[in-house]
Each structure stands twice: as structure tokens, then as C-alpha cells.
Design a protein that fits this description.
There is one protein chain. This protein is an alpha/beta fold and about 260 residues long. Helices cover about 30% and strands about 25% of the residues. The chain is built from 8 helices and 10 strands. The strands form 2 sheets. It has a 6-stranded mixed sheet, sandwiched between helices. Strands 2-1-4-5 form a 4-stranded antiparallel sheet, with helices on one face. β1 and β2 (about 25-35) form a beta hairpin. The longest helix is centred in the C-terminal third of the chain and has 16 residues, at about 180-195. The radius of gyration is 18 Å and the shape is globular.
Amino acid sequence: MTAERGEEIRNIIGIYHLSKRYNEKFALDDINLHVANGEFVFLVGPSGAGKSTLLKLIYMDDFPTEGQVIVGPFVSTQMKRSKVSLLRRKIGVVFQSFRLLYDRDVFENVAIAMRVTGESSYEIKKKVAQVLTQVGLYHKRNEMPSTLSGGEQQRIAIARAVVNSPAVLLADEPTGNLDPEVTEEILKLLFHINAGGTAVLMATHDLALVKQFGQRILFLRDGRLQEDKILGYKGDLSQRLERIQKDPGRFGPGWNPGTK
């Protein structure tokens, strides 16, 4: 990501010599990377590469064996468990399995993220209505998640993740259980959220999906960062998606990891 008009690019995520071991086996080994404010980054690698572990360390559901994670003002080596909830207000997280509350309606599934922060009922009603409109599900606010499609449930999960206006959205295989058409809808939504200034780090094993986009790709294999590469496309990602849909072949074969 480059600075424009003399603006300083600041990192929202910094990872320094990060390693994570489980029973003496490395899940991640000496990872170094940065994510800038407002950047969209794909984290790609096969199953077991360490993608989910890396995301867990970023939202501090776990902590490194060695090294350091910095998210805004939060530093993993100085973090107290009692302060993790403050970090979570700055980070939205979306999972492949949705993780919705199936005994509560759509509105409450989104509202709960604001209730735990002590927001007023007025602010909750206003903001939840806003984000449900953004994801196209305001008309289903009173329905139960189990009555909705997989794509709709994922959009609820995304709405819940962004309702507190996080600086960072982490998406862990958010399209892994969805068909191609719904996957495109979810990607468009993530691009739209990113265009509003939220940094997005999306993990996926589907290289064929992401290599069509000219954004930065981090390629993990066996717990190591093998590639950190920008494909070079400039412009709005949602516009690029629309162009690819109209003419899938015009952008060439894309990037093949392991080549320079």
C-alpha cells in the first residue's frame, strides 16, 4: 500500500518474529508482517498452514510462544486478560461457521455486540438498523437465523462484526461453506466495508478465488510466510469483481505462488 498526496501510511497490525508452538510443534514460525490502516489483504494457504492460528493471535484469543503482535495501541507482550475485551471492540471477527445465537432473532444477534459494550438502547437500535440495511437484511431483522440461507447467516455474522465500527475486520474462511454465487456477494460486502476505511484481513485456502484480484496476498505454508506479494491492480475491488464477472479471462492467469 502506498501513500498518496504525502499522506502517511500507518500500520494497524504489526507482527514481529512471531512463533507459536503446540506440544513443541511449530504452528507458526518466525512470522513478520504489517497491515496498514484501510488495507485489504488476503491470507492464503492450504488447510493446516496456520491461517486460523495467526488470526487467533491477532485478536488475542491466544498468545505467541515467541515474538509480538501489535494491534493499534494493544501489544501482546503487555496484554492483560482483563484488557482483551477492549481490543475486541476494535476488531471484528467473522468465522466460516457463522457462530450465531440460534435462540435469538437477527436483530439480537447483531445487537449483542453493542450490548456488551454498554451502549444505550437508542444507539443500539439506530446502529443495528444501519448495518442490517448495509448487508441487505433489515427486512429480516425479526426472523430467526435458522430460517435463513447460509449466505444470509454469514451476512448477519458480518453485520455483528462491524456494528461497533472496528478498525480491523478479520475473516476466517468466510466463504468456505458457500456456493460461488453467494461467495461473490460476500466478497462484494467485504470490499464495501473496506472501502469505508476498515482494514480487512481475509483468510482462505482458495487461491483460485483470490488470485483474480490485484490486492496483497500473504501465502502461508507449514507455518511460514512464503510470499508477501501485491499483484499490482489499482482501484476499487468491487469494480474489479464486476469486470471479472463480465469477462473472466481478461485479467490473465493471475499469480502462481512460488514464482517471482
